[in-house]
Specification:
The chain is built from six helices and eight strands; from the N terminus they run E-H-E-E-H-E-E-E-E-H-H-H-E-H. The protein is α+β, with helices and mostly antiparallel strands. The protein has two domains: 144 residues, Adenine-n6-DNA-methyltransferase TaqI, Chain A, domain 2; 44 residues. It has a four-stranded antiparallel sheet with strand order 2-7-4-5.
Length: 189
């Protein structure tokens, strides 16, 4: 069954805040640089904003999906609440799943990061120097919504694939170290 995102998630625009004018630094202002290339949290994430009444309505909730919709770097990350309270910068559109009994936030994140979806989003982006994906494009995007069990299986399979890739990378690095060590021993003989 294909369902448009507009029926399964609310879209919320990230906000622009001048961090240099903010004092009291208690709120995290999440930007692209807060994730590394593997889409894991960067090492040093610090609060950049003070608490203000106008920010409360923009506080992220655990399970929100931050989709990078401005610029060339396209990715979706699942907010896990590690850094709270937090707001998303204007480079993100926040997707908040309406009913977790219908769709898992992690499944929606997986779908948004899928290469085919990334191609669709890039093709629909507007602008040249700073491409933008509009809310309308995201809302119209259709995705398959299998049972929660199948969604869970897809997420577990994706996580296992990522782990397998990490292990292959580690094995290749260790093999290179062993190979270079053996060459050095041959040279020393």
């Amino acid at each position: 069954m294909q369902v448009s995102i507009r029926y399964i998630a609310d879209l919320i625009s990230g906000i622009y805040v001048n961090t240099s004018a903010s004092k009291g630094k208690l709120v995290y202002y999440l930007q692209l640089g807060h994730w590394n290339k593997e889409r894991k949290w960067a090492e040093f994430v610090k609060p950049e904003l003070c608490e203000e009444n106008r920010l409360y309505k923009n506080y992220l909730q655990v399970g929100d999906i931050l989709l990078a919709t401005k610029g060339m770097d396209r990715f979706a990350v699942l907010y896990d609440g590690r850094y709270a309270p937090a707001v998303a910068s204007s480079v993100f559109t926040v997707l908040r799943v309406k009913d977790v009994k219908t769709i898992l936030p992690a499944y929606l994140q997986w779908y948004l990061n899928h290469p085919d979806t990334a191609k669709k989003l890039s093709a629909a982006s507007r602008g040249t120097s700073t491409p933008l994906i509009t809310h309308e494009v995201i809302e119209q995007l259709e995705l398959p919504v299998p049972s929660l069990d199948k969604q869970g299986i897809i997420i577990r399979a994706q996580n296992l694939q990522k782990r397998a890739t990490q292990l292959r990378t580690q094995i290749n690095k260790l093999n290179e170290i062993i190979f270079q060590h053996n060459l050095l021993q041959i040279a020393d003989r």
